[in-house]
Design goal:
The chain is built from eight helices and ten strands. The strands form two sheets. Strands 1-2-3-4-5-6-9 form a seven-stranded parallel β-barrel, surrounded by six helices. A two-stranded antiparallel sheet has the order 7-8. A hairpin with a 5-residue loop joins strand 7 and strand 8. Helix 3 runs parallel beside helix 5 and helix 5 crosses helix 6. The longest helix is centred in the middle third of the chain and has 21 residues. It is globular.
């Protein structure tokens, strides 16, 4: 039997802006990545998201990103490894405060958006992020793109890592995600997305946009919580995995 974690980015509302269906989507995932205020989220949203996840027994991770509310953390901003280390420590600490206040415990850390993709290819940034996670708590799991520099950095420093794949994204020959600037970055069909996920879990392969099978490790599957049909998609992915005899559960 194949086993996989199902994660979602949550807590991305802030101020008067409501994004996603956080409470409902928690019924279909086993881990959540909570925005820490840089790319999205605010203190009140962080507290509420932590409370909801704890009530539903879903594991919680920090989702640190670049300081870019206007761009939702998806625009590349040139930062040094030291700056990456500092912003990751800062954001993990912020979420950890709410977890401690609510009697919870952090399971993992997953960088967001541009920071995630930059670290996937940049050794210096990936090492800085892994070091930040390790120094805060070496028992935390580092989520990163399957086959990426971030996964290698986490393993080299002694962290448990989780190789992540994406349900609704297309891939390139080198295993990277197709840039969101490209028109074919997202998979529009729920059926096609589910078929891709099941193949990644069961066969360890994904078909790139160039028509080549790329080897991939699927420890955890990301479904985005900010899309127009995120809730129905989460339900569909969860049901389809179970019907394919894939066990969905968190790491701890």
């Amino acid at each position: 039997m194949h086993t996989v974690d199902l994660n979602c980015d949550l807590g991305e509302s802030f101020g008067a802006y409501q994004i996603g269906n956080d409470e409902e989507i928690l019924d279909y995932v086993t881990s959540v990545n909570v925005a820490c205020g840089f790319h999205a989220g605010d203190p009140s949203v962080m507290r509420k998201t932590v409370q909801l996840a704890l009530e539903k027994g879903v594991k919680i991770g920090a989702h640190p990103g670049l300081q870019d509310l206007m761009g939702f953390g998806r625009r590349n901003i040139k930062i040094s490894p030291q700056e990456a280390y500092d912003i990751v420590v800062y954001q993990i600490g912020a979420l950890n405060g709410f977890l401690q206040a609510e009697g919870g415990r952090m399971q993992h850390v997953k960088p967001h958006g541009a920071l995630y993709n930059m670290a996937a290819q940049n050794r210096g940034l990936s090492q800085a992020i892994a070091e930040a996670v390790y120094k805060i708590n070496p028992e935390l799991i580092l989520f990163g793109l399957s086959g990426s520099e971030l996964i290698r950095a986490g393993q080299s420093i002694g962290l448990q890592t989780a190789s992540e794949v994406f349900a609704d994204r297309t891939y390139q020959n080198d295993g990277s995600l197709t840039s969101r600037m490209e028109k074919d970055a997202l998979i529009a069909s729920d059926e096609a997305a589910v078929a891709q996920v099941i193949r990644m879990v069961k066969e360890g392969k994904v078909l790139s946009q160039q028509g080549t099978d790329v080897a991939i490790m699927a420890d955890t599957i990301c479904i985005h919580g900010d899309g127009a049909h995120a809730l129905s998609f989460a339900s569909h992915v969860n049901k389809s995995l179970r019907l394919s005899e894939i066990i969905i559960r968190s790491f701890t």
